[in-house]
């Protein structure tokens, strides 16, 4: 994390999942400003519910915009989990 302008860079790589029994998220954060203001790209292997929210299999792009900049205050696990609708400080892109 730094203040270097990296708008002319690209990310290239590959991921591989070698299990069919564990379907946790995997992904990365970019555009990081502070613990509650950032973008997140993630991928979920299988659809799964959690406390009234749903994580549907596939890729998503989200932006988190918390008011205080303190992720422990602004964000909840529910906001990180949901990937189909806007939820709290998370907007689904």
Structure description:
The structure is a single chain. The protein has a domain of 60 residues. It contains two helices and six strands, in the order βββββααβ. It is mostly beta strands and 93 residues long. 10% of the residues lie in helices and 37% in strands. The protein is flat.
Secondary-structure element sequence?
Answer: EEEEEHHE
Strand content is: 35-45%
Rounded Rg: 14 Å
Structural class: mainly beta
Biggest pleated-sheet summary: 4 strands, antiparallel
The strand line-up of the biggest sheet is: 1-2-5-6
Helix amount, in percent? under 10%
Number of helices: 2
Mean pLDDT: 87
Overall morphology: flat
List unreliable stretches of 5+ residues: none
InterPro entries: ConA-like_dom_sf (IPR013320), Thrombospondin_C (IPR008859)
GO molecular function: calcium ion binding
GO cellular component, one term: extracellular region
Protein name: Thrombospondin C-terminal region
Secondary-structure blueprint:
Elements: E1 26-34, E2 37-44, E3 48-50, E4 53-55, E5 58-65, H1 71-74, H2 77-81, E6 90-92
Antiparallel strand pairs: 1-2, 2-5, 3-4, 5-6
């Amino acid at each position: 994390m730094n203040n270097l302008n990296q708008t002319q860079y690209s990310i290239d790589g590959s991921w591989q999942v070698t299990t069919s029994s564990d379907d946790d998220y995997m992904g990365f954060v970019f555009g990081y400003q502070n613990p509650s203001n950032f973008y997140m790209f993630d991928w979920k292997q299988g659809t799964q519910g959690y406390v009234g929210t749903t994580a549907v299999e596939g890729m998503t792009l989200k932006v988190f915009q918390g008011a205080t900049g303190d992720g422990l205050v602004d964000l909840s696990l529910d906001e990180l989990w949901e990937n189909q609708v806007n939820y709290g400080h998370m907007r689904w892109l």
